[in-house]
């Protein structure tokens, strides 16, 4: 009984490891394989005897062969079944299947050796070794013939509708090749070669597909081999390297797809569904943002979090990411009811266990804001509500001032009165040496929270960053719409440059900054290198499968009111100091008199209430755009 118990434990361990499969259901294909294996085992043993005795088997061993063969077949087939050789799909055989065959044949040979000695009907010792080799060749050979047959059937060059070049002859490239071959009948994509910069891989083959050259040779190789699609399969490569390769590929008149970064491919699994078209974000070469989860969780977990402008581009992404840190309550404040409804519905699916409170309110309504703070007692505030459209605010100055300055002041002072722990203002690089109303109002908003930070227990700080890709009112959606309409794509000036970040990375850094920022600090996010708007437009046209200037015209309309040719993240009086996060810096605050600033702010409010609004005693209601 102890031995039987040990055997049971061992079999369970092998079964859990996937080497033994104790499933006794069987189908007609498995029956056919069983019959073939029985014949091969018998043939292997007989051939081993022939080889051992120079094809002159003594009568004694011929008799023993026939006495033992049925038992030997039964032992081998049992071992094969126990190791799952009849539960595997051999058309997709890989190294794991090869290992199972070796283990199954080895186990069968050991049991045969033990059985023949127990019944005292032994064979020459070399016969066991020879038959082990032969069984390995026969049993493995039959199964890998099925693999070769499946590959030959699925990959028929004449049926291909797209010839594919794979960039990256590493692990991911190998898996992409396997996926293309496996799904050939549905995709009809034929791999024609690999591209890899490793000199040791040049002119070598990987699963029958040759490494044709390096990244610099992509244009020539694509032309020579009539490539229809390029798949970039190097998810672990630095973003800057991926950007360089992507730019080379995007210059060609072929479809370019990419395997996302390794953080996007959960558990390292790669499939056809993970391969997506190259997007404008891939051409920016942005490195993955690293955040300190423990530090963030420490200031968000079990807190009441208020997010103003919750339905906007930044606000809604803040809502999504904040939910993962399990606050006790999330307050979604926005002036537009549809925005509030949309983000509430999304968060209810994303985090069913979260307490989500939708609030329709205007940050300019001081009474309503104070009531919200009094009722819900938010402890952490992300202030993202703001007017952000530069030219539009030039002709609506009073709205920009009322919303971006006085609205910020209302929320920030309410945070102080109701003892919120922290308040984080979403600012912009346009607040640096502002040339626009929008930029000036955001700079004053920064000064508001710096002033409050000097006297309040609340931890006030601001975060500056540049343009956000695909946010509402940004150039990317505009360019896409113009391309869909056949052009032209309109750009204000050929030398116009801007800093860009993805919405996700901007918000991750904002949340991280909220954990690090000290009272009155203005934190600046590292946004990489500035991008020429003209280059951005040309990349978008190419990614749409069209040629700039030929298929889609580009026209220049002139710099609009309030716009700069280039943006800055610091003014001449500010310097930066580093933080423990490599992507976040601290801007040295400019000195200001709190008393005089408060006086000037009160005077500004008085001007708005009298000169701009005439008889109105309260700010007029109006739409609040989100940042």
**What gap, in angstroms, lies between the N and C termini?**
72 Å
Unreliable parts: 1-24, 262-270, 612-627
Our Rg estimate from Cα atoms comes to 35 Å
Question: Tell me about the biggest sheet?
Answer: 9 strands, mixed
Architecture of the largest domain in CATH? 3-Layer(aba) Sandwich
Percent strand equals 5-15%
Describe this structure in words.
- This protein is of the alpha/beta class and 627 residues long.
- It has 3 domains: 2-153, no CATH class; 157-278, Rossmann fold; 293-469 and 500-527 and 569-612, Rossmann fold (3-Layer(aba) Sandwich).
- The protein is built from 20 helices and 22 strands.
- The strands form 5 sheets. It has a 9-stranded mixed β-sheet with strand order 10-9-8-11-12-13-18-22-21, with helices on both faces. Strands 3-4-2-1-5-6-7 form a 7-stranded mixed β-sheet, sandwiched between helices. A two-stranded parallel sheet has the order 14-17.
- A hairpin with a 5-residue loop joins strand 21 (576-578) and strand 22 (584-587).
- Helix 11 (313-323) packs parallel to helix 12.
- The relative contact order is 0.07.
- Mean pLDDT is 78; it is low at 1-24, 262-270 and 612-627.
């Amino acid at each position: 009984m102890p031995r039987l118990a040990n055997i049971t434990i061992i079999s369970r361990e092998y079964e859990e490891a996937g080497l033994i499969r104790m499933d006794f259901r069987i189908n007609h294909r498995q029956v056919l394989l069983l019959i073939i294996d029985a014949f091969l085992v018998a043939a292997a043993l007989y051939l081993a005897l022939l080889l051992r005795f120079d094809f002159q088997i003594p009568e004694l061993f011929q008799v023993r062969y026939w006495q033992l063969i049925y038992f030997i077949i039964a032992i081998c087939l049992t071992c094969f079944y126990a190791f799952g050789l009849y539960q595997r799909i051999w058309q997709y055989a890989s190294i794991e299947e090869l290992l199972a065959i070796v283990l199954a044949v080895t186990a069968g040979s050991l049991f045969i050796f033990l059985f023949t000695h127990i019944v005292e009907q032994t064979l020459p010792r070399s016969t066991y070794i020879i038959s082990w080799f032969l069984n390995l060749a026969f049993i493995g050979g039959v199964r890998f013939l099925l693999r070769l047959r499946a590959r030959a059937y699925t990959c028929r060059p004449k049926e291909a509708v797209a010839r594919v070049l794979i960039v990256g002859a590493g692990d991911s490239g190998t898996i992409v090749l396997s996926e293309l071959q496996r799904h050939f009948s549905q995709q009809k994509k034929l791999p024609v070669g690999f591209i890899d910069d490793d000199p040791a891989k040049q002119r070598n083959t990987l699963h029958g597909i040759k490494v044709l050259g390096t990244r610099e040779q992509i244009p020539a190789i694509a032309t020579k081999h009539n490539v229809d699609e390029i798949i970039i399969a190097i998810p672990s490569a630095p973003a800057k390297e991926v950007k360089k390769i992507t730019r080379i590929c995007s210059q060609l008149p072929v479809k370019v797809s990419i395997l996302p970064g390794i953080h996007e491919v959960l558990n390292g699994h790669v499939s056809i569904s993970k391969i997506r078209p190259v997007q404008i974000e891939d051409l920016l070469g942005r490195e993955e943002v690293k955040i300190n989860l423990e530090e963030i969780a420490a200031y968000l977990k079990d807190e009441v979090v208020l997010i103003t402008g919750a339905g906007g581009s930044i606000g809604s992404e803040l809502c999504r990411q904040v939910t993962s840190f399990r606050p006790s309550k999330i307050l979604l404040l926005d002036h537009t009811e549809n925005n509030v409804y949309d983000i509430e519905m999304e968060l209810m699916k994303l985090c069913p266990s979260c307490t989500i409170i939708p609030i329709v309110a205007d940050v300019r309504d001081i009474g309503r804001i104070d009531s919200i703070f009094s009722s819900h007692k938010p402890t952490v505030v992300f202030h993202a509500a703001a007017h952000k459209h530069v030219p539009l605010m030039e002709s609506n100055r009073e709205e920009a001032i009322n919303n971006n300055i006085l609205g910020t002041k209302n929320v920030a002072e309410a945070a102080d009165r109701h003892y919120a722990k922290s308040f984080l203002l979403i600012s912009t690089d346009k607040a640096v040496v502002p040339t626009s109303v929008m930029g000036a109002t955001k700079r004053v908003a920064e000064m508001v929270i710096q002033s409050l930070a000097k006297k309040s227990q609340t931890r006030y700080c601001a975060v500056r960053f540049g343009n956000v890709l695909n946010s509402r009112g940004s150039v990317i959606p505009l360019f896409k719409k113009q391309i869909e309409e056949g052009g032209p794509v309109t750009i204000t000036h050929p030398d116009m440059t801007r800093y860009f970040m993805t919405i996700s990375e901007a918000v991750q850094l904002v949340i991280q900054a909220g954990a690090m920022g000290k009272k009155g600090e203005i934190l600046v996010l590292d946004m990489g290198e500035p991008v020429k708007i003209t280059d951005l437009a040309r990349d978008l046209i190419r990614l749409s499968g069209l040629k700039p200037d030929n298929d889609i015209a580009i026209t220049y309309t002139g710099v609009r009111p309030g716009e700069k040719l280039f943006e800055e993240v610091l003014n001449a009086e500010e310097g930066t100091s580093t933080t423990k996060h490599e992507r976040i810096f601290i801007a040295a605050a400019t000195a200001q008199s709190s008393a005089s600033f408060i006086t000037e702010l009160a005077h500004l409010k008085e001007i708005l209430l009298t000169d701009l609004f005439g008889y109105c005693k309260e700010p007029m209601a109006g739409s609040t755009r989100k940042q």
